[in-house]
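Work Package 3 (structural annotation) set out to generate three-dimensional models for the target panel prioritized at the project kickoff. During this period the team completed the workflow that converts sequence records into discrete structure tokens, so that structures can be stored uniformly alongside our sequence database. As a representative example, we reproduce one entry of 692 residues exactly as it appears in the project archive.
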Amino acid sequence: MISAIGSDCNHWRMDHLETKKDNNKPTRVNKKLKYLIFVFFLMATIQVRSQCWISLMVDSLSPDTVEICRGDSVKIALAGECLIVYNDFNSGALGDDWEYVTPGTVSSPPCDPNEDHVCLWFGEETAVPRIIETKWLDLTPGGYLSFDLLFGVQGDPPGCEGPDEMLEGVSLQYSVDNGITWIDMTYFCPNGTFLPTNPNVQSPLTYDPTPFTTWGNYHFQIPPEAQTPYTRLRWIQTSCSFFNDHFDDNWGLDNIKVSRSFSQSVQWSTGSANMGPVTVAPTQTTTYYVYIIGSTIPPSVIASDSMVVYVHSKPIPEFIGKQEICKGQNTVIQAIGPYSYNWSTGSTTDIIYAQPDQTTTYTVTATDNIGCTGIDSVTVLVHPLPLPDITGDSVCKGEMALVIIHGGVTYQWDNGMTGSQLMVQPEETTSYWVTVTDEYGCQNTGSGLVIVNPLPMVSLNPDPTICHGESISLTAGGGEQYYWSNGDRHKTAVVSPEINTTYTVTVIDQYGCQNSGSVTVLVAPEVIAGIVSSSDTVCSGAEAVLTATGGSIFEWSNGSSTPAINVQPSFTSTYSVTVSETFENVQCSGIQEYTVIVTECSTVFIPNAFTPKGYNPNFKPIGDFMGINNYVFQIFDRWGKLLFETTNPEEGWDGTSHGQYMQGGVYAYRLSYSKAIDGAKVEKIGTLTIVE
């Protein structure tokens, strides 16, 4: 029999199953949690002597309500059991779960007063076999058995003295044939170990404390062989010592619980009908229900529970600030909303300062006060600066230049002008700066260069003076092309003016610039030379006086420089004189020729006899030989032998040959010459007689 039950000292109280949840503080769950956690209990009577409970568990927390962020999911894992036996022995009675309990048990071990542990204790009044045996149990779906166990310590006072021999331990057994046959599940050996069965031997003995000499909770799955509708469980000690009128080897049990798995159907409001986890991801606040359906016909709801999942929208900030800028500008972007922020730039304030070089998207994670996060982005559109397309100009000095620009909408020049075209007339090469503005208001500057090419420097000869009838080369410089006023297209123009004339040349350089210059050619008066002769015809050897006219400087062909010269030609001769006069430091000349005709005024006489040793010892022609050329006089004997020959008109034959006088007789002569006046040849042949 069980004695009076003392105070409640069990480890897990039954009324815990009925504890209500605090619905005033919903649990907040965000993405950083692995799962949303909630647990609820459903209590229902499954059959006689059983209670069922289920719990939806994640990390062992059990809120009635949860708050999640939109897009998050909740994984619900269903656990539970049906309690067939539960006894903590705190009520002071064994209850009707037991088929048999060995008499003599007590509710409080006398050896453990300080723990105030209310339990079932097999003490010094309890004989062997010491047994606690359940009634038959329906363990068809399987389940588990748990309980607290304590062995007394060897040598303690009566009532608390513990097992020491190997056979004095406690066996946990089951029977499926109404208690006829018992099968060991395990054996709690006095030495603190588990054995498959009682060895039924005494030694070795145990005297020291073991794991079983301290309260411990033990958990066993129901073996498959014990999963029947008619299964009994028992704890049994088959051997103990009886000494000094009391039983030793004492031990106790507490918090015995036998449960089985669900045999009913589970039905979720999501449509799921299994015991496995259910993952839900509501987009709005939703209440989820779970039902335990009994096996009655028609089916009935044994128990149900619900869970409210509050869904918070993701925080989506609004943005203010300039989101369209020109390259090189900066902007301030501010996120608006009661959130904390984490920008992709690393900033954790609501404001970022940006100066992107190109269009850039900035991402921000906004977190509200319950931990929900939302990701949004703002794109800062960066317009490139306009690229001024400027066409400059190249002009000659004094010309107008046109600068043209494209690439924008409006243009502002540094000289105050506006528009896409600029007309200027710079004196020298100049850059003109312009500010270009495009359709987005972006600005850039550029410059157009106007190259001012100087006019070519025309180089010309100094004004020359020429004589009448002469030509002169006029050479220009300073360019690549030349256009003379007389039509010449060369760098050098040859001119022959009759009078003073001015010639203009237009010079064009490599840049197309042109300039003009002129040169005046002065023409001296014509010098007309003349010769006056004292006689037009003279005899060979006679003199004539030639006088030049028309100037002051004379140069005769015979080398004389006097105005008049005396000439004594042997034959007809032509004389020339160059008459010069100075004009503007230029000496101009005229040439005149005069021919003096020479006539042969005398004849040639040849004697026909002479006396070599007499009064006239030389034989030669007699006459004027001044106007003859090529004179030859020869003497031959009767046989044609040459006896004498001379080319000197003054030399005659002395009648000798090789130093010997020739005999008297007839000899032949031959005389030949040419007239200097006309070149006519004269030949005379005759005979002569040497007189002794």
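The CA atoms of residues 411 and 419 lie 5 Å apart.
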